[in-house]
Amino acid sequence: MTKTLRNRRLRYSVVMIAVIALVAVFVVRLVDIQVVQADELSQAAESKRSIPVTLYGTRGTIVDRDGTALAESVVRYNITTSPRLVKSFEGKLGGTRVKDVSVDQALSAIAKASGGDVATMQKNIAADPKSDFAYLVKGIDVAHYEAVRALQVPWLYPEQQAARSYPTGAATGNVTGFMGTDGAQAGLELAYQKCLAGTNGSETYERGEDGVQLPGSTVTQKRAKDGGTLVTTIDSDLQYMASQDIADAAQQLKAESATATVVNAKTGEVLAVADYPTVDPNDVDATKDPGAYGSRALTAAYEPGSTIKAAIAAALIDKGLASPTTQAVVPYSRTFPWGGTIHDSELHPTENLTLTGILRDSSNVGITELGSKLTTQQRYDVMREFGLFEPESAIDYPGQPTMNYGASPQWDKQTDINSMFGQGISTTAMQVSSIYQTLANQGVRIPLHMVKGCQTEDGKTIDAPDVQSKRVVSAAAATQTVDMLQSVVTGGTLVGMKPISGYNIAAKTGTAEVADGAKGYGADRIISVAGMAPAEDPQYVVTVTFTKPQTTKWSSGAAPAFRTLMSQVLEKYRVAPSTTQARTYPSTW
Fold first, then answer.
1. Greater confidence, 170 or 38?
2. Which of the residues 146, 355, 426, 549 has an alpha carbon 20 to 30 A from that of 181?
């Protein structure tokens, strides 16, 4: 009996020890889980159910002067999944009850609805079957997204993002530039990246084991901020007209490239800047010429030719060294002591021309005879004040030539002479526009600009250009020069251009030789016309330029495009017709 009792107590003791040991194990494990590994396990659990989502800040819109979108962001969707949750399911596939929808059936339906590729989806899922994230298809539009959503596949998770669209296409592609996989690539998109770029935010939501988002579980960590609206001075309707005009003319002339600009003479606003060829930002890959990615009117430096003569004439009058009737004896050619020779474009006997006649006939010899009354420094300074030799100060646009000229010209004797008729110096088409805006505005230069400013999300306006005006020549000098330029249209190098009924036009032609590397100048030419209307009170300045035309190499070949575009400008803005006769001066003596 005693022995039995003793054995019973022993068994009891063993059981108790075992129970205590087991409880101790559970307690230790519980402490380990709830205390020692609590943070680690909590984070692991959170990572399994808490899904991070990027909130995309929408890139800002680029608009024309009237608010018409030139570049805007549109909604696109990425369709993602959690590979570990991809499996067959029961439900409806596109509205049709299917008892057991296989993964292959689901992927085929997704591909059909989205335009995606089944093989790519399978590859992305198989890359890491235990992961919580994989792309199935990227960048689909709203219609395709709705079609995918209607399939009701439980393991699909849409991800919204913004894509770039250019409603006006190639007509303004040279101005807006475009976006690429690495961000902004050209034009205003690149120049105003800080204004346009949105700031992304983030949020998380929780989902259950079945992959379905838990209602009310979304938490925003950082709010997304949209980019600003870039307001340009461009008139998109006029921009389209200008683009069509020079494209048609360039093709007829078989020109390598062409540009056109339209400027408000009173404000310096660029209303249109067109290029041929140009880029369609909606289909950049279709453009094979990298030179067409931007605007040659702003970035291509060339020797302007005779359009520069108007600036020399205005400077002569401003300094009191000449008047519209100042006389000169003008032979066909002129030879200098150092052996250099210049000549006029057409053979002619020695003529008695006034300064007006020199502009009318575009005489190289004549402009150098009178222009030499100005010192080299004076001519250099006035060209610079007209806007040459430096990038357009109020236009922020990538690729403008640096033109790092010094305070004094570093010209040899021949270049000093040639510069008076636009050879040996570099300009852009926009800089030539600046010369004629200054003359049209009674000698006051307003920096040309094509952006009004950036309107930020909080209502502020930033990036407004500095358009402080500056007098370059006197009002009398500018007015007399404009009057002289009317003779170019009524009896000079533009006499063959059909008049624009009811309007007095002041303009100048340019035919510049194209440098051929170390060989000097070749047979190619750049032809142009720059002018304004109505001449008695100029409102608008138009320029057209054609590079290496083949059907004609005379500046008169650019006249039809100039006339067409100027006519459209005057009609569009309802400019009142001229009420006086064209002001002219004697051309000969």
1. 170
2. 146
